[in-house]
Amino acid sequence: MSFNFVKKLPTPAEIREQYPVSDAIIQVKKERDEMIRKVFTGESDKFLVIIGPCSADNEDAVLDYVHRLARVQEKVSDKLILIPRIYTNKPRTTGEGYKGMVHQPDPEKKPDMLAGILAIRHMHMRAVAETGLTAADEMLYPENWRYLSDILSYVAVGARSVENQQHRLTVSGIDIPAGMKNPTSGDLLYQFHTADELKKYLLMILKEVCEKNEENENELLIENILVYLENHYADDITLNELAEHKYFVSVGHLSRTFKNKTGLTFSKYLTEVRLKKAKEFLGNTDFDITDIAAFTGYNDASYFTQIFRKSCGMTPSEYRSLERKKKNQKSDSEKENNL
Predict the structure, then answer these.
(1) Structure confidence at residue 93 (pLDDT)
(2) Would you state the pLDDT for residue 1?
């Protein structure tokens, strides 16, 4: 087997200059890349879904499925980020056979690399322009990446290429995520020198996943408790009761988690909620102080007055008088402005 020179291909820079992406595509890619980046950094709890067929060899068919994915993306945008697979390169173990649209844009004609580069660039740009979804493509040749670097949001390195040093060097320098398959042997150990290294790596990943799940569960737990307190502040509520009989967690865990998430102890937070409600009653109603104390979870009006004074610097009666004075002054001012 030997190689014959056919023709020199334009450089990626020349192709990008002759066939530039629009400002709209640039903006879409910028926004999508940022959304995807946040998933990898942990700022977003959405999942990435790299989805689609393993080969893209017909532009109209590709656009049909990307349009369908765009409609699905609208429905799941709160949880998922869909990245369509538009794989225009097909690896071949022996080099024989159809090697994808980049080699052969028309399967019925002879291979034409230049026509293929132009065809895949046009198809990727059309997909973004029509659907708003930037795509993933497989990096069969590291040199081809730069022909699409201003369009793609994800690069895949296949099993036949993943152990190649040039591929690994290239993906280490690109500014979008790259998916590295395990090699054709199916062995993950190529990344590690020993089985112990692999074990440590997997345990680290498992630990991170568990910690993330625990963090999400804790956030949801505290959110539920805060809503519960807003609706049941007048009830006889204790941390022990909520922990052991409503949310079924340990008292110590709930106490620590609550303070970490709110910055306040449970009792301090509940007191603030109750006093906030008490202020609303005092400022907007003529209810007796004893009734307001009961409405906000205090059966002992004297104790309620003591807690109120300690927090607000005045008694409930003084607070009511001050609020009424403010309202009267505001009313008088509005009357003067209307004269």
Answers:
(1) 62
(2) 54
